Amino acid sequence: QTVVTQEPSFSVSPGGTVTLTCGLSSGSVSTSYYPSWYQQTPGQTPRTLIYSTNTRSSGVPDRFSGSILGNKAALTITAAQADDESDYYCVLYMGSGISVFGGGTKLTVL
Amino acid sequence: QVQLQESGPGLVKPSETLSLTCSVSGGSINGYYWSWIRRPAGKGLEWIGRIYTTGSTDYNPSLKSRVTMSVDTSKNQFSLKLSSVTAADTAVYYCAREGYAYDLGYWGQGTLVTVSS
Questions:
Q1: Per-residue confidence (pLDDT) for residue A34, from 0 to 100
Q2: 8-state DSSP, A57
Q3: Which residues of A touch B102 (CB under 8 A)?
Q4: B67 contacts in A (CB within 8 Å)?
Q5: Which stretches of chain A are assigned E, i.e. beta strand?
Q6: What span, in angstroms and rounded, lies between the C-alpha atoms of A106 and B30?
Q7: CA B92: distance to chain centroid?
Q8: Contact B38, B82 (CB under 8 A)
Q9: pLDDT tens digit string along A30-78?
Q10: Can you tell me whether residue B70 is helix, strand or coil?
């Protein structure tokens, strides 16, 4: 079974820029996988940041952007803030009705 | 504004069946896919499966043999059953609505289910 890969952890300085990636254990991520990105802060419900590769969900600041970088989907956060410290998950649509979450990236802002 | 609320027992014995219901308010259940996702303590999110309002289902292959989903459009509810549970099924279970481009745009608050004797 194909595994969706994410960096387990990442850190960024306040005001800095960070790019999180979402790949496949076998193959390349493309827009056909409809990559989406979710943010989950401890104790909170996940919320959509990006869907369909690069469409920001309603109310999400434009500091968050999605793209395809090489063979992976990517989430870029600019001007990082303390409350960006969260777990970030990508989801890929594998076809045949199946979606798969990546393992998540724990982002630290310090 | 669409709201989802999970309900069901918070404690299930090993080998028994976990049963949860998600109630949808603020909008019709018709015309959408409805999903279940879980997050075990200390681990990441896991997609369990989804159901369309016609009753058509798609399940995570790793759980498929134990999962059953159903929908009751008259009650604006859908349900999850997970059989033969073990401690590894202990998790916060979420229901969610899948929208355009597979976006899980609406989530319930989640409910903790513990598998223990």
A1: 98
A2: P
A3: 34, 36, 51-52, 91, 93, 99
A4: none
A5: 4-6, 9-12, 18-24, 36-40, 47-51, 55-56, 64-69, 72-77, 87-95, 98-101, 105-109
A6: 36
A7: 10
A8: no
A9: 999 999 999 999 889 999 999 999 999 999 999 999 999 999 999 999 9
A10: strand
